[in-house]
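User: quick one, fold this
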Amino acid sequence: MKIHVNDIDLFYRKTGSGQPFILTHGNGENHEIFDRIIDLLSEKFCVYAIDTRGHGESSKINTYSYQDIADDFTAFIKRLKLERPVFYGFSDGGIAGIIMASQHPDLLDKLIVSGANVTPQGVKRKWMLLFRLIYFFTRNPKIKMMIRQPDISDCRLQQIRTPTLVLAGQKDIIKKKHTLHIASQIQNSKLKIIKGENHGSYIIHSSKLLDIIKDFV
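Assistant:
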């Protein structure tokens, strides 16, 4: 299905019934990374798995920003009149979710983010060097966004009132101290570092998130 928001078309897959539950992916991916969990979540929730702008079957664009993605999510929720949805964001989806929750503190019922950073400095040095090298050779605008954004202040994080679960893998590309700092700045937040997992191993084509989500929601 597609919906027109902010002058673009967003593709989404809708399954199940019950409380709205939004799934959002990371950079360079699409909603299909959640193929192992969508049907399981649909047993309890009405799941909306979105392709973000410039990804999957959503509209192609030339310039990327996390604020634009956050604005798309906000418009999506309001246009479909979703009441108090649970929002899950992986990596870039989590960054945009944090921005959205800080600007619209009463929009969500719960926020879950994994592998998110609030500044480029939150990414481990070796990974950031790799991303910069990739961008040097490809000039990929998606990579450009990753190495120059986001810039979310502690003040913004402190504006989030939504109950929040902050996740990261033990071997994540995000610095552990950075993840801990994000959780420390968000009121009413919980932190979980997933033992033995990397940035996306417990998320991409995996059902490992299911029990974590159920315990929190």
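User: anything notable?
Assistant: The radius of gyration is 16 Å.
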